[in-house]
Design a protein that fits this description.
203 residues, alpha/beta, Arc Repressor Mutant, subunit A, 2 domains, 5-stranded mixed β-sheet, 9 helices, globular
Length: 203
Amino acid sequence: MESGKSNTDSVSIGVFATLFASTARAKVLQLFMLDPHRAYYQRQIEAATGLAIRAVQREVERLTKIGLLYRRSEGNRTYYQVDIQFPLFPELRGMVLKASEPVDRLRGMLAMDDGVRLAFLNEEEHRVLLVAAAGRRPGLTASEPFRFEVMTSEAFVQALGENPESIEPFLVRGIDLLGRRDDVIWRRIESAGYAVEKGRGVA
């Protein structure tokens, strides 16, 4: 055994080599680090990253093997999610946020705010509409170049039915920042005739 080398050192070097070895891995890492509370199945990762499904399968397997991701099955789908107890999670997320473009950084911040239910960005006007979770208020303050507008879930649904023009800058000319399409409010949005585009990198 070499002097000064321990099993812990070997494990650490292996983790670093896995984390920083490829562009494909960097894309997968960015997706998971920007919205770490969300679980994704492979086809969602493929759509969000633009990677081929074989590359997605390879990368999630490697990240699961080192313990950064964990997997669970529901029916015939396997979901992957970040283990936020992973020792390097805070540092990795911090690096991803710093290296990301402003819109991605905004998405990363909103995804971790439990007061935010849905978020829409009108890029042309740099306006962000936040739909607040019931009984909560988003804890974020606007940061350049974005300006925040906040609506309660009830006010948003009411506007959809009675005054849709007031929110059309976000539904017609805006993008969906968080991709939470399983939220019941999306049924209201779709039944009102709106097909909001997902932002780049949003699954």
